[in-house]
Amino acid sequence: MESKYRKIYIEWWNIKRSTIYKLVAIFVFLGALGYGGWWVLKSNWLVATPEVTDAPKDAATVITFEGDVRIIRAATRETILVTRPTFISAGDTIQTQADGRAKIQMIDGSVLSIRANSTVVIRDSNSLFGGPNVRVTLDDGQINVRTEEQPENTQNVVEVRESENKINPQTDASFGINQRSGGGEIRISRGSVETTVGGEKTVVKENEFAALDSGKLANKEKLLAPPVHNSPSSNEQLMGSMSGATDIVFRWQSPDVTSALTYSMQVAKLPSFAADSIVIERQGLTSPNFTLGGLLPGIYYWRVQANATSGQASTWSEHWKFTVVKREGSTSIAASGWQVEGLGGTVYRISGKTQPGATVRAQGKQTFATGDGSFLLQITSPSAQTTVEISDDRGNRSSFVLNLNTSRIVKQF
């Protein structure tokens, strides 16, 4: 009996042994196949080659874009709607619509940022004479050119109206067409630009502004910074009346208190501030505040521009978003588990728990409660007490006066 069992065992072992080499071969083959597939995917062999790889020599490249951006090919007069990174050759025209923006990598390493409602022509893009030559013409709108260290013998020129502007290394320069005067504008926030108008050369330096009008360069002046927003704060939620509409007071800080300034302000339904999305536009405001009445519930964006008596207008401030919510309820919102951690000086970290998704605000800072209702908010408070406001999108709201030393609620209303 024992020998029979051993015989069966040996026969089984022999069969298994006879197949093991085939299994090893199969595993090796599958491993090689899997690695090969991974390598092919990693090398993007199966991905459609974008148009930018077919770019002619010395072409510029659209690296990022949003909204409606179009290219008019000089060779064919064909208009292309930009839907992916693509190339731009000498002679091509780039047009951005009201919601369009684009960034272009030039052959000298500089980045050309094209704002909305702008038209730019690439006049030259070549490296035939020992260094990259870049030349663009601004026909309408506004562009920004940013250079870092550039190759030797580089020529980077922007044409605006009757001027030629050579961009130096390590420079941030903006060029625009003044819609009121029809002239051009030059703003330098870093570095310098050599401007030639009517054969005369002038260097516009960092933090300077110069206007171009009737073939002349006006006297340079200090660059006017855009206003700084105060309220409504970024992403703030404002409670409307029971009827829905509410009055909003906009406040901002003047960029230059030594000059007499006026302000332009816009409120829009879209961050692009396209003409059909603007709710209200005011110009010539003499105070850094404005009250807008009867604003209905919804999501809005606002921005401000400063205007000097010399005619210089700042760039628009960064747009801030705010939401008007219809007051539908009066239920108070509960919060518990208050903890305050002092981080040194007047900096504190507040944590607690409330209803999921609620907005928590204090000292101009805000956060949102996570899925389990917990929140964490870091603030700066000059006093030992602060008011924490918690609200939801249904109009419910509660305020808590919190002692920052003891983590205890002093008052709730």
Give the helix proportion (percent range): under 10%
CATH 2nd-level architecture of the largest domain: Sandwich
Strand composition percent: over 45%
Q: Any idea how many domains?
A: 4
Q: Which whole number gives the mean pLDDT?
A: 84
Core attributes:
nine-stranded mixed sheet, single chain, globular, ten-stranded antiparallel sheet, 413 residues, Immunoglobulin-like, Jelly Rolls, disordered N terminus, mainly beta, 1 helix, 4 domains
Describe the structure in your own words.
With 413 residues, the protein is mainly β. The protein has four domains: 1-47; 51-222, Jelly Rolls (Sandwich); 228-325, Immunoglobulin-like (Sandwich), CATH 2.60.40; 336-412, Immunoglobulin-like, CATH 2.60.40. It has one helix at residues 2-42; strands spanning 60-66, 69-72, 79-81, 86-88, 93-96, 101-105, 111-114, 118-126, 133-140, 142-147, 155-160, 163-167, 171-177, 184-190, 192-197, 200-205, 208-213, 216-217, 221-222, 228-231, 236-239, 246-253, 261-268, 278-285, 289-295, 298-308, 320-325, 336-344, 347-353, 359-362, 365-368, 374-380, 385-391, 397-403, 409-412. Strands 1, 4, 6, 7, 10, 13, 14, 17, 18 and 19 form a ten-stranded antiparallel β-sheet that branches. Strand 11 (155-160) and strand 12 form a beta hairpin. 28% of the residues are buried. Mean pLDDT is 84; it is low at 1-15 and 39-50.
